[in-house]
Structures are given as C-alpha cells and as structure tokens.
C-alpha cells in the first residue's frame, strides 16, 4: 500500500480523536498536545508544512489552557474575547492554519515567536512519567512564527532537528543538569569548601550545557532562533540578498526554500561556513542555483562583521515542557538579545489582546508604580539589608514592607494596585496567595520574584502538565514575570535584582561596584535601559557564578518603563 495513503488514513483517525477531545467538558490537555504532535509528525512526512505549523502550535500551553476550561461562563464580552484566545473551540482553532496566521497578523511585527517542540513519542501518551527521571534527548521541531503584517511574504517555517549522537554511557545534558541541581541543593552538606566546589562544578556544567545545546543538538538550526534587526535597513537586507539572486537568475524556488534562505542571512554572522552549507542542503534547488546562493551569502557575510553588535527585536520563546529546564537564554547566539519565555502562541495572543492599548512598537508601556516585599519570613536578613540600602541609594520611592509577612488580602491588593511588585524572599510569593485566588484576579502588574525556583515549571509526573506559579500570574493578566529557574545563592539573586532595577527604573543608574565593592566584584557599565528584557542581560553579568547567571528568566511579553 502507498505509504502516503497510509499516513493520510492515520491522520484522518487522529483528526477524529482531536475532534472528540475538543468536545469534552474538561479536555485532557496532555493527550491533546501529544495527539497534535503525532499529527504534526505525519504531516511533516507528507510535506504538508502549513498543517505542521498549525498542529505544533496546538501542542503547547496545556498547563494554562486547562485553567481556562474551568471557566464555563465568562461574565463580560471582553473576558470572552480573552478566553477565546485560549479556547479549543474558538474560530482561530476552527480555521486551523488560517486561524493561526490570523493570530500572528494581529500581534506586533516586532515580535518573533520561536517554538521548540519534542517530537511525538507514543510512550508519552500511555506511560506515566516518574517525577525524578530526566527526559530523553530526542528529535525536535523548531517553528518560527513571524508576527504582524509588516513582513508580507514571511510564512511560518518548521524544521526537524535530528536526535544528537551520544557515546554509550555518556550522560545527556538533562542528566548532567539534574545532578548539578541535586548537588547544589544538598542540605546535608555543611562543609563550606565542599559546597563551594560543588557550586563551581555545577556552574561549569551549566556553561557546558549552554554550549552543547548549540554544538551537539540544534547545530546549524540556531539560525532559526534570532529575532529581526531593529534597524529597518539591515532587516530589509536580510531578504534582499536572497530575493535579488532569485530575480536576477530568474529562479523558481518554493516558499519554504525561500524562508530557509532568509534564516541564513538573518543569522549569517553567527554561522560557520560548514553550518551555512548544511542549511543550504535543505533548500530544494539545483546545485548550480545553490552555488549562486552560497556566493551571495558568503559575500554578505564577508562584509557583515558589524552585524554581530546590532540590536535585534525580542524573541518570544515557546518551549516544550520537557525542555523548560534548560538555560536557552544563555546560548551564545541569544545571550546579548532580549528573550522571554511563553507557554504557547495562545498565551501570547491573550496577553496581547489584554494589553494592546498599552503596546507601542512591540513594547508594553509600564509606569514606575511599585511596591517591595523584603525578607517576609525574617530568614534573609543580609538580603534585606542589601536591597533596602540599594532602594535608598537609587532613590526608588516605593512603599514596601520588610521582615513582615503579607496577608493573603494584602498580597492580592498589592498585585492589583501596582505596576511592579518586587519580592525578595523564599519561593515565588504564592505561599501568601492561594493559586485559586490568584486565578480570579485581573492584573496589570509585573511580579519580580527574586526567590529560589520562582519561575520554575515542575514536573509532577504521571500524565499531567507541568505546574508553576507563572501560569497563575500570566493567566491573571500579568504582562511579564521575572524569576529564577532553580535555586540560587542569595547574594547573586540580590545582585541581579539591583543591577536590573538600576538600569531599568527612571532616573540615572548608580555605580554599583563603587557603592558595594565587596558585593559587585567586576567594574561594568550601567547604561540606561528602559526595555526590561534587555536589562536582564545587564543583570546577569553581575552574578559571580554562571549557575546563577543562567537561572534568571522572564516569562511574558516585552515591556518598557516610561519616565
């Protein structure tokens, strides 16, 4: 029997399953996501790339979409509009690929959404996961979704990344990460020297993982991960280098081939010649045409050394739940640029609709109206002193509390009344506000959670979605959440917080190394940086350990401070 015919038969059966899931009052989202992965895998084999883009977009976000399914009757039209962004039965989903494109066109053209999805594995559907077992390194799909209507000829692009080859007995990056986190969290170890050595070792392991994601796994497809240049002339050149060759040589090339070539020129200074050649092999053209593209690209690269330092627009990074634990932002190609994590296109779309009146040039405007909570359980007295001293020196005129636990009503009120909530304590603050109460709130606030594992998504095992406090904050409407992927040392958490606020808040930054030389060891510049995601890159540099450097992440949409 024809293999394509078999694939189409199976795909029809999968579609029937998806249709039944959508009709359930409480859909099993992990099953829905895995079924969409299966559909994407088969569609990729059939080279139906529009369907691949749609199915993969539906394979994410179950952790936050499941919260919506509990809301049966939204009480206002605006809430219904927001909930439609997440619903399995909205027009966007019913229209499939065309609905996906509609979502993308509604959002700012400055945003590029990059989605990284683990390939379908039938075991994920039928086998409950143990909570303490690291995930396997597997095939990936990388999808690039360009938002807005500015780039007329840009379509969603998906590529498949092969499973990396590993030597027998060699630990995977997930196993190395798990051991590093366990070593640094060992409460039984009281020897300061041994603890320091373990942290140094963990720091080197995280640095190696950051590099290995590129060299051993993503490889040449790092070209898919970069945002567009802010400079419109440079952005136009990315396309014209390729378009000129096609027009001058009167070539016939598929839209997919053109999209792949654009990725090369957009990332050309980040790619080696071997990586460029490997990408070119994915383009459906003759050897003669490939040589012409290679010549034009190499000429562009030769004259493009200045491109390495050019600013780029934000990347919104959608990660498979099993890939969330990795430090993607610290990859060399992303380290300098603004990156924020989001759970799915649906969540980005919902946040855009909620805050669109405050969004200009792809940035949501935030007022300097903040509140701080320092050391609420009285166990971090040094951290309290460091942060209080900084807020005073930097003339941050916020109200706040120190060495005092907020009540649930107070914590809820602070989130509702303020644009920024700075939390320097243990965890993510939800010990003071139950997740069910958080779900009921309608917020505009940015929680800055400088506590251990405050932005972590936790695997509870079984067949459930991962869980995390950031789901609740984003579901409540918070445009962005700042936090830590894992446990960090108190001093580096405080350094990150101070450096970030120093350059981001209105007024002139102060010299942190001059004020606190024993805490900020390296002299560095503190330029004014009103874009929050860019300020994180400055904040990370003040950490003493790469382990702590890599823990700081943002979740949500790009924001900018207004003076």
From TrEMBL:
<keyword id="KW-0378">Hydrolase</keyword>
<dbReference type="InterPro" id="IPR030397">
    <property type="entry name" value="SEPARIN_core_dom"/>
</dbReference>
<dbReference type="GO" id="GO:0051307">
    <property type="term" value="P:meiotic chromosome separation"/>
</dbReference>
<keyword id="KW-0159">Chromosome partition</keyword>
<dbReference type="GO" id="GO:0004197">
    <property type="term" value="F:cysteine-type endopeptidase activity"/>
</dbReference>
<dbReference type="GO" id="GO:0006508">
    <property type="term" value="P:proteolysis"/>
</dbReference>
<dbReference type="GO" id="GO:0072686">
    <property type="term" value="C:mitotic spindle"/>
</dbReference>
<feature type="domain" description="Peptidase C50">
    <location>
        <begin position="367"/>
        <end position="463"/>
    </location>
</feature>
<dbReference type="GO" id="GO:0005737">
    <property type="term" value="C:cytoplasm"/>
</dbReference>
<protein>
    <recommendedName>
        <fullName>separase</fullName>
        <ecNumber>3.4.22.49</ecNumber>
    </recommendedName>
</protein>
<dbReference type="InterPro" id="IPR005314">
    <property type="entry name" value="Peptidase_C50"/>
</dbReference>
<dbReference type="GO" id="GO:0005634">
    <property type="term" value="C:nucleus"/>
</dbReference>
<dbReference type="Pfam" id="PF03568">
    <property type="entry name" value="Separin_C"/>
</dbReference>
